[in-house]
Amino acid sequence: MPVVPQTIIGKLEFYEEHLPVWSKDPAAIGLTPVQLVELANRTSAARAAYDAAHAARSAAKASTLSQAQSIDAMHDLGGDLIKTIRTFAETNDDPAVFVLAEIPAPAPPTPAGPPEQPTELAANFLLPFGIGLSWKGSVAQGAYFGIWRRLDGENEFTLVATSKEKSFDDQTLPAGAASVSYYISAHRESFTVNGSALSIQIGANGNMSLSMAA
To answer: Is the pLDDT of residue 78 over 60?
Structure first.
């Protein structure tokens, strides 16, 4: 194990603590007064350099914090002014404002494209008589869902509701219906994407049996 600590402050404090001890009787430990005077001078210089470095680090930390605060304050106001310029240009329908301000005009919005296909359509029986539907999908960028139903004896599906939720309770199911089929469509702007269908057989006692239909 080293006699002298290996850290900067450890070395400095070691010699600061031992100088008075060694100076009591240098000859008794094999040293000379001249050696100890030189060590004292170097220790004093080391302490001065250490304190100066510590002060410089503290000052640098304070300067860095001050810099960050100043930059943030500048950017907060500058960002507000850029918003004002853009609002002024859009209000006056004048693209030249962006040229004069030397800032880019907002990029035209990118079309969102078709919505995600609804998946995992599921159903459960609602008392006294109805069907609860749930599915997975996304309503990002203005998407929404259409709930389509076809009763026993009907040839076409009919849109019964639209929703931004991923569930729907069909309480308008006619009493005594023997079967019903559903599918969920996803819509965004002019795009429509259909999900798979779910067919439900309803027994006289209200029991259901489910089957996926293409």
So the answer is: yes
Q: Kindly state the DSSP code that residue 111 receives in the 8-state scheme.
A: P
3-state SS assignment for residue 43? helix
Share of the chain above pLDDT 90, in %: 69
Report which DSSP code applies to 173.
P
User: Strands 158-163 and 167-170: what pairing?
Assistant: unpaired
Other CB atoms within 10 A of residue 3 CB: 6
Burial 17-31 (b: 16+ CB within 10 A, else e): eeeeebeeeeeeeee
Whether 138 contacts 117, CB under 8 Å: no
Arithmetic mean of pLDDT, 145-160 = 93
**DSSP E strands, the chain:** 119-126, 130-136, 144-151, 158-163, 167-170, 179-188, 191-202, 208-213
In words, the CATH class of domain 119-213 is: mainly beta
What is the DSSP annotation of 51-103?
Answer: HHHHHHHHHHHHHHHHHHHHHHHHHHHHHHHHHHHHHHHHHTT-THHHHHHT-
CA distance 208 to 196: 19
Q: Which residues have CB under 8 Å from 24's CB, separation 6+?
A: none
